[in-house]
Amino acid sequence: MDPTFRSSRLIDRARSGLLVVDLQTKLLPGIEQSEQIVANTDRLCRAAELLNVPQTASVQYPQGLGPLEARLAERFPTPDEKLDFSAAGCASIAQLAETHNLTQWIVVGIETHICVLQTTLDLLARQLDVFVVADAVGARGDRDHRIGLDRMQAEGATLVTTESVLFEWCQTAADPKFKQISAIVREG
């Protein structure tokens, strides 16, 4: 087998970006598993920074729904503000995609069946590869969460976990950043 071959279906840090959708203070208390979602998102953000993966965030109607969660607000001081449920039209996404030639998006956030779903479907419609991090997205109810994940997968999104993203970004234990990524993995 050719050791240089790499499947185009794997996440590639050179052509992927991380999108954080609406992890806002007023929305989080009603979201099942919100602490885990924020913790996993934080882990992904730190790894993205370490591995030079572009990242951006959106907020839905921040005047009413508040700012990003505190840990994320430090990382994204000026998230894209939106009224549309989909974040796919946000300026930072287009800018990062063009600047870095991104063809893949790793999507995290809330709510699975509303903003995450609509964002994912819009990105897929642009012929982009979308990886939805199942343990870093959530909704107020389990049924909405499960149906949202099922629908995104049926429409062509790939469901992944935080740990799988971290190791696909790293690609090899020979990577100089492997020990740091491994430490982030062990936090989970």
From TrEMBL:
It holds the Pfam family Isochorismatase. Residues 17-164 form the Isochorismatase-like domain. Signal peptide: none annotated. This is Isochorismatase family protein. It comes from Rosistilla ulvae.
